[in-house]
Specification:
With 248 residues, the protein is an alpha/beta fold. It has one domain: Glycoside hydrolase/deacetylase (TIM Barrel). It has ten helices and eight strands. Strands 1, 2, 3, 6, 7 and 8 form a six-stranded parallel β-sheet that branches. The chain has a two-stranded parallel sheet with strand order 4-5. Bound molecules: zinc ion (ZN).
């Protein structure tokens, strides 16, 4: 708690430093994100938890393959769907939901809130919740596209009674060169658990199948890691619930 308190003081300082420009508006969400990620990582390490999260889907090809792999391990994950993709692949979104996985919102069009006029970015958040409404739970989670949030989009998320869902380990599945799946699992193991960012949209291009294989490979490596270490695989909402209960 002392550590968090100290960081909160730094957060206040950042606001002062940037007060002369537009940065003042952006600084507080950036600091809030850093704090939230740190808390998430600490909770996972303290309770032996791993969350698998998949963004930008559903993918008509990759998502069902992931559902099969997760079912084999009896594991539940979180899928942050894009509204426009879910509208085009409703049966796949239904399959994710019916398999007991958690569905979160990742906006409709995947606009970068830092590069978009505030009203348009807020409208994209709202459109995402509208498009995904039938699959979202009572307290849905919103994962900001590109991890970018502004005071306006943060307020739009809160106004829906939704929570922000960050990640602690980026699998690298969108990097120009992917690491080995075992390297990703190694990073999670050294952190003592965490929330892993992956993407389940259907890629285009010649290395599409390599990327799909990588996503499946990381999923298998994390499932194996959790089994070996006796860690639980939890959907993000369960972790956020536990963290809220701890603070009460
Ligand atoms: Zn995304």
């Amino acid at each position: 708690m002392t550590d968090l308190g100290a960081t909160a003081l730094v957060a206040g300082g950042a606001g002062v430093v940037c007060a002369s420009g537009a940065g003042a508006w952006l600084a507080s969400p950036v600091v809030a994100r850093r704090l939230a990620v740190r808390r998430l990582a600490a909770h996972c390490a303290a309770t032996g938890a791993v969350a698998l999260t998949y963004d930008d889907g559903p993918g008509a090809d990759l998502t069902p393959r992931l559902l099969d792999r997760l079912a084999q391990a009896d594991a539940r994950a979180t899928f942050f769907l894009l509204g426009r993709r879910a509208e085009r692949a409703q049966a796949v979104a239904d399959a994710v939901h019916d398999a007991g996985h958690e569905i979160g919102c990742h906006s409709r069009e995947h606009l970068n809130a830092w590069k978009t006029a505030p009203a348009r970015a807020v409208a994209d958040v709202a459109a995402g919740f509208e498009a995904l409404g039938r699959w979202l739970g009572e307290r849905p989670i919103f994962r900001p596209p590109y991890g970018k949030i502004t005071p306006w989009t943060a307020r739009a998320v809160r106004a829906r009674g939704a929570r922000l869902g960050w990640w602690t380990v980026d699998s690298g599945d969108t990097w120009p060169e992917t690491p080995e799946p075992e390297q990703v699992a190694g990073r999670v193991e050294r952190a003592g658990g965490g929330v892993v960012l992956l993407h389940d949209f259907d890629r285009a291009g010649e290395n599409a199948e390599d990327r799909a294989a990588f996503v499946l490979g990381v999923t298998a490596a994390i499932l194996d890691l959790a089994r070996r270490r006796g860690w639980r695989l939890a959907p993000m909402g369960a972790l956020l619930d536990e963290m809220e209960a701890d603070r009460r």
